[in-house]
Design brief:
With about 130 residues, the chain is mostly helical. The chain has helices at about 1-5, 10-30, 35-55, 75-85, 85-95, 105-110. Helix 3 (about 35-55) packs antiparallel against helix 4 (about 75-85). Mean pLDDT is about 75; it is low at about 95-100 and about 105-115.
Length: about 130
């Protein structure tokens, strides 16, 4: 929202609209999923918006001699890179196809396990011997 309001990038507005629309469509459904054709269409539109966004972003300045560290990029450029890198997670969050699984097995439940005070180090993971 900030990128759309502050910088006025059209690609960011299109991406926001696409994700909000697809999320609303999925949440209205009983199955909470898109079918394969709809998912492929969404993925195609997502990638098209990112391609247009790349041309809309200003070029990254070249590194100056004697300067160290990362080159500073705009918020819009950082957002574009994150959306490009994490496409599966972004699209999977709103509309997970039937063949995909967000976490394997019981990883979601295991990651939220609360340990009793003093139990740290005594927890045995599956396949490993306990320390007691």
């Amino acid at each position: 929202t900030f990128i759309v309001e502050a910088d006025g990038y059209a690609w960011a507005a299109h991406m926001k609209r696409l994700l909000q629309h697809s999320c609303a469509r999925v949440s209205k459904r009983k199955s909470k999923k898109l079918n394969r054709r709809e998912y492929a269409n969404l993925q195609k539109r997502y990638r098209h918006i990112l391609t247009r966004g790349q041309s809309e972003l200003p070029p990254i300045p070249a590194r100056q001699n004697g300067k160290r560290g990362r080159i500073a990029k705009s918020d819009a450029h950082n957002l574009w890179e994150r959306l490009k890198q994490h496409e599966t997670a972004v699209l999977g969050c709103a509309c997970l196809p039937q063949h995909a699984s967000p976490l394997p097995g019981n990883a979601a439940g295991e990651s939220r396990r609360v340990l009793a005070p003093g139990a740290r180090g005594r927890l045995a993971y599956p396949g490993t011997p306990s320390r007691t």
